[in-house]
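Subject: mismatched residue count in predicted assembly?

I count 329 residues in my input, but I want to confirm that the predicted structure covers every chain. Input:
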Amino acid sequence: MDKNTYLILFIVVMTIATVTTRLLPFVIFQKQSNHPMVIYLAKYTPPMIMSILVLYVLKNVDFVSTSSLNTLFAIFVTVVTHIWKKNSLLSIFTGTFLYMYLIQH
Amino acid sequence: MIRAILKETTPIMFGYIPMGMTFGLLFQDLGYPWYFASVMAIFIFAGAAQFMAIGLLSAGAGLTEVFISTFMLNSRHIFYGLSILNKYGKWGLRKLYLIFGLTDETYSLVTTIKIPSKVNEQEYYLYITLFNQSYWVLGCTIGVLIGGLVNFNTEGMDFALTALFIVLVIEQWKNIKEILPFVIATTSSIFVLYFFKDQMLIGSILLSISVLLIIRSIKSKSYG
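Triage response: the counts match. Full output below for your records.
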């Protein structure tokens, strides 16, 4: 198989696999969308996923090493800014620019 | 409305553009025509899967293996859809695009933010998804074309996604004001991180949802 043909098939397969995971619940469960269990999941899943995603993006931080202090400090500043100013964009930018400054200098 | 959407999605832009550029740079090394990086960003539109693709492509992986590993990697999305069945409105092209573009970041935004009143929900979500995908396509394309030439040091910029998820946890807390889901998710994640670090995302989601449903059934029994 020619190199570009392989890549095109590869992209098609990966697209189908990704779309399947995203489409599947809507196709299978749409009719049950008012079932109490589904409503319960709709309420509690987002906060759980968000907490998991935070830990996921932090999973490779080595908390024993001192370099993790940069991460911890940037997180702390993000949280404090957010609780204080209640402005998502401001908190995210403050945290991110602080983190970039800390690791680049 | 566009201004509001730009404001909501800017943190994602800060995450997607440098991450897309990294993808583009890695893709460039594989020796394919540059535009395939953009094609992948348009059709696959899944960050983790595209990074996995770099490894699979250089190993010349079989297509069955590609399907199975992509499906496994993205299987967490099944639970995303399950929890927003009613959010995306009536079936149609718009809804199909919304489902197609349901990344971690888009899911996080649409489940947390409050929509301005007098705005069509489906349209609002549509723009959010479209903007996010534009950032990703842009990042991947810049990366494959001029990634090596960019002098501006983007190191650490991807912290924007970490900060975004942290802010969204706080917002979720304000919405729900119950400690249960946060405790379940955190303990499950730590458990899975310790024992099955490589399958952290799907493992933690499966465990958290199982624990949640067990607690629900215990509660409903004790209340009769």
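Residues 2-153 of chain B form one domain. Marking this ticket as 'not a bug'.
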